[in-house]
Design a protein that fits this description.
With 210 residues, this protein is an alpha/beta fold. The protein is 22% helix and 19% strand. The longest helix has 17 residues.
Length: 210
């Protein structure tokens, strides 16, 4: 996909190839839908009672950096990353981090933490004057890098995931941000390669067909 092609949105592809909504049960996407897989991570904290989920944060990750494929991201989020597999892993294998979901390059979706719990994805952060974004947000990682174009399948999967989450947690509707927006100066993802306008149009298609 090129920068020019992202302006050519194939609405028919969305309507014919994708579900209109993924069911959510007790904070987990239905694993029978769209080939979604669950890999429960130990890296989470229960949300405080009566804390509304009101923000969705888009991230990117690749392990090793700018290399795609394999299970290294899942191993990292599960605390099982083998430091001897790659020199870079020696610098991160002891970190305790997670995200609620990962969308791989082929559009497949993996979930690690229930939306009812806090994943450890945002770090030191603030959104609209409110700090500690982990407390009230959902974090979705895209397998990618700041300067490598995301795939059409990832935009489609992210739009469907976000639309489905919005139906369960409506306060998220107007509150979707990049990691760079909640941690400016510290984080840069999802980077310049992520086309926010195109993603918004993808999301609008689901909103118009519910």
């Amino acid at each position: 996909m090129t920068n020019d092609s992202v302006s050519q949105l194939n609405e028919g592809y969305f309507l014919n190839k994708k579900s209109k909504k993924i069911a959510i049960d007790n904070g987990w996407f239905n694993s029978d839908a769209n080939g979604i897989k669950h890999f429960p991570s130990p890296h989470f904290t229960p949300r405080e009672e009566n804390c509304a989920i009101s923000l969705l944060v888009v991230h990117n990750i690749s392990l090793p950096p700018k290399q795609f494929g394999g299970d290294h991201i899942t191993d990292f989020f599960l605390g099982k990353l083998d430091k001897d597999t790659h020199p870079y892993f020696e610098t991160i294998y002891e970190m305790k981090v997670s995200a609620h979901c990962l969308i791989k390059r082929d559009g497949s979706l993996l979930q690690y933490v229930s939306f009812l719990d806090k994943a450890w994805h945002a770090g030191v952060s603030s959104y609209k004057g409110r700090e500690k974004c982990n407390d009230f947000s959902i974090g979705i990682e895209l397998e990618g890098a700041d300067d490598i174009l995301y795939t059409e399948e990832q935009y489609q999967a992210l739009a469907l995931a976000c639309f489905s989450i919005q139906q369960e947690y409506p306060e998220i509707k107007n509150n979707i941000a990049g990691h760079n927006q909640i941690a400016p100066g510290r984080k840069t993802d999802p980077g310049e390669a992520f086309d926010w306008n195109y993603f918004s149009r993808c999301l609008d298609i689901y909103s118009c067909t519910k």
